[in-house]
Here is the input.
Amino acid sequence: GENVEQHPSTLSVQEGDSAVIKCTYSDSASNYFPWYKQELGKRPQLIIDIRSNVGEKKDQRIAVTLNKTAKHFSLHITETQPEDSAVYFCAASDSFQKLVFGTGTRLLVSP
Amino acid sequence: SQTIHQWPATLVQPVGSPLSLECTVEGTSNPNLYWYRQAAGRGLQLLFYSVGIGQISSEVPQNLSASRPQDRQFILSSKKLLLSDSGFYLCAWTLSGRAGNEQFFGPGTRLTVL
Here is the structure.
């Protein structure tokens, strides 16, 4: 089955800096890669996703890149703000619309 | 629009007691449904998923079970809770029939087993 690894586990940046979170997956058949943001005590919320026929997708300050050959994808957040502080999860869809999640990255943005 | 409900929101139960958590989805038909558990400070562990009424797939063998008695209702149960069952339980749904759909999460149930 699919296995997703996520790094780093924690990331501290200053407000205005960029943040990058990286994930690797094992199943070359996976074709859908979402990123979720989870604030403390809340449900995960989708912030951006990418499908395997696309190499990069951007939505304002966030972007995701996908390298199918290397089986890795990354989340990029530019001009970080304190409200970006949260836990971010990557995931990969292997089959039957099941998502396999990474272990999460705790992002702390300091003012 | 679609809405997903979970109840109860919080629950404190003694070890060995039974459990029943309910999830319902409004505004869609024949969704795929999922149960996840999140231990404190940890990631999301898929417990069960269902592609239709009465169809349940288990991802992790444990003392939990799931049922789908109606199209938009998903229930997570246990006959005897363990301390290790404590966590944040999340129900999620996707549209069926097309790969790569977004999963929408419910508000979750925070379970504490004492």
The longest strand of chain B covers residues 19-26.
